[in-house]
Amino acid sequence: MFGYGIPVEHFKRGMGRDPHIVIVDSGSTDPGPYQLGLGHTLVSRSAYMRELALLMDGCAEKGTRLVISSAGGAGTDAQLDDMIGMIREIARARGRRARIAAIRSSVAKDVVREGLRRGRVSSCGSAPELTETDIDETVDIVAQMGAEPFARALNEHPDADIIVTGRAYDPAPHAGFCMGRGIDPGLYWHMGKIIECGAACAEPKGRNILATIRPGSFDVEPMNPAERCTPTSVAAHTLYEKTRPDLLSGPGGTIDLRGARYEALDDRRVRVSGSAFIPSQGYTVKLEGAAIVGYRTIFIGGIRDPILLGQLDGFLAEARRRTEVLHPELARGEATLHYHCYGRDAVMGALEPLRDRVPHEIGLLGEITAPTQEMANAIAGAARVVVLHMPYPGQICTAGNFAIPLNPPENPIGPVCRFSIYHLLEVEDPTALFPIETIEV
């Protein structure tokens, strides 16, 4: 992940192997919709600048092409332009010329509306059906490009030193580089799915990885000498982020892993073969859009009293009822209040098998979302005071149920986003939504 930290020594070791291309992914929906809805980047500008300088210097020295996908995290036009600006700044500081091929992925609302009206939009995963209201409320929309825009940029702009893109399917740049080179699509999509996470397929998990692909197989090798790939570690990573272990759907088709084989070449390298690709009947791209749904305030503290912990569910239910009396917006559904009990079931919720055990302490996070920040702050203050001072059966202490580590105790978080669009759009041309422009810096 671009910006998370590239070990310089391991990167240089990889460049010493004379790679044909260097690819780094910069995007993810894992952190949620805030990047898209608020225009925030996944990491700081200083983190991007640090790693961009390393990548540009290393690739310029070797004459190797650099590909950066999903610029900024969400891959919006604004984030892509910011990344181009950083490339320009570093090139100017180095006194170096570079040619950029930029692939955009922002999508106009009218394009989505037209797709919806023509019945070409379907839900992705558990997303509800898309509505016109969802589109209207959306702040920004991007389409997740497949391999074809990368292949087009690489083939039509062979003099481009750097290819930087908007939102992309994570394995797409690796697949795009391999298209038209006599390699089975099942292999290059499988390779891309593994190495888009760097050396996360190694033991222990690492950052930099070198892949070598040919007709019939590909090899993976971590660039940290202290790490190693094994058939188990690589096969296990193939299962990562999958709804099922044998088939993985993506733009243009499905990777079929039922015949995949993993062979140890030595104690650090693994060869993979047997992966296949099943083309889909129609070509779809995933649309991602975010809308602002309110404003959030939180408070946090600890509860240590065993008497209170033994009746925590009833205590929090009564605390909620008393807060709703003070703020009827909660009862009306205009605002929400959630308690997260860390140390008991904050991660798994009702699915937690150890939920009935009484812990010796919990960390309680109160989360309030409301139409305005002022309302969220007010409800958070009331909810926090209720938890702090409300009596309960068997209470021995006079007051102070809740140990609060922060001051001020209520912390405004700001706007809250939701994925208003998380849907598939059927397209006739896999490159039509993704225009390419060249820029000299």
UniProtKB/TrEMBL annotation:
UniProt domain Acyclic terpene utilisation N-terminal: residue ranges: 49-391
Domain of life: Bacteria
Pfam families per record: AtuA
Protein name listed in UniProt: DUF1446 domain-containing protein
Taxonomic classification: Bacteria, Pseudomonadati, Pseudomonadota, Alphaproteobacteria, Acetobacterales
